[in-house]
Design brief:
By secondary structure, the protein is an alpha/beta fold. The protein has a single domain, classed as P-loop containing nucleotide triphosphate hydrolases (Rossmann fold, 3-Layer(aba) Sandwich). Helices cover 42% and strands 22% of the residues. It contains 8 helices and 9 strands. It has a 5-stranded parallel beta sheet, sandwiched between helices. The chain has a 4-stranded mixed beta sheet with strand order 4-3-6-5.
């Protein structure tokens, strides 16, 4: 059995990471997503063990101390991370693994020397702002914070292997472009 490959999907808030990841996973049977652990509260429609593993701050801290995380980061006051065991198990079973994470986490993995292909998903500022407002998950202050952080997020593009523009109304083109990368990485 061949070892799977690790793919990192990152980008700015509102670039469409979750939408793109969902579609990639639906269309590619050998691609698996590691369920991320987080300290944030579940949003409407999210389910434990499907969307995320929701844990309290103390549990997350113990997992850090025990060295359980492959990668973790604090983003907007909440912690997110994927366990080493979950990543290595899927890769060892021959599955390609998709991690959806913030740019800081992708850069950490890329600079660690672990073999991974990093894809930075972006969109124009107007599209991102429209998407953030449309998803209805954040108040206006949170949206403005995310908009202010876009330049910082984009500063991590240099650590990624590919930058993909996710243009409004062109999801299928975005998916096909990424599938081409996955096929040849």
């Amino acid at each position: 059995m061949n070892q799977g490959r690790l793919f990192l999907l990152t980008g700015t808030s509102g670039a469409g990471k979750t939408t793109v990841a969902t579609e990639l996973l639906r269309r590619n049977k050998n691609l698996r997503r590691v369920i991320t652990y987080t300290t944030r509260a579940p949003r409407e429609g999210e389910r434990e063990g499907v969307s995320y593993h929701f844990v309290d701050a103390q549990t997350f801290h113990h997992m850090i101390d025990a060295g359980e995380f492959f990668e973790w980061a604090e983003v907007y006051g909440n912690r997110y991370g994927e366990t080493r065991k979950d990543v290595e198990t899927l890769l060892g079973q021959g599955f390609d693994v998709l991690l959806v994470l913030d740019p800081q986490g992708a850069k950490t993995i890329k600079t660690s020397g672990f073999p991974a292909t990093a894809l930075f998903l972006d969109a124009d500022d107007e599209t991102i702002i429209r998407r953030l407002r449309a998803r209805g998950k954040d108040d206006e202050a949170s949206i403005q914070k995310r908009v202010a952080d876009m330049a910082f997020d984009r500063s991590h593009q240099d650590a990624c292997d590919y930058v993909i523009q996710n243009k409004e109304g062109h999801l299928d083109t975005t998916i096909k472009n990424i599938e081409g990368i996955l096929a040849h990485a």
